[in-house]
User: Fold this.
Amino acid sequence: MIHGSTTTCDTCLASCCRLLVRLLPGDQVPGHLLAEDDHGLTVMARGGDGWCVALDRGSLRCTIYAVRPQLCRVFEAGSPECLEERAADGLPP
Ligand code: SF4
Ligand code: SF4
Assistant:
């Protein structure tokens, strides 16, 4: 039996990159990747497939990793929110 298995993004479909990501003061994301939500707040734009436009569809990697929004930085692999998104895609913890 394996104890303490760790959730890793390498076994994921970038499930969390379909969530609505609001920009916070200090975020420095290039403007062409941004949109407005229903409340007029600035968010990461998403494509017709639902994923953030900054996600490389082939590698499932963030193309703006160095300047990704603060909300993306604090989203932890293995957190309840992460496991919820993985489960929605049929992925194990
Ligand atoms: S949902 Fe979790 S495992 Fe998947 S990419 Fe996001 S943080 Fe990583
Ligand atoms: S900015 Fe990067 S980490 Fe954040 S949702 Fe988009 S692709 Fe994912």
Remarks:
- The mean pLDDT is 94.
- Residues 7, 9, 12, 14-16, 75, 77, 82, 85-86 surround iron/sulfur cluster (ligand 1) (CB under 6 Å).
- Residues 20-88 form one domain.
- Strands lie at 34-36, 42-44, 55-56, 61-62.
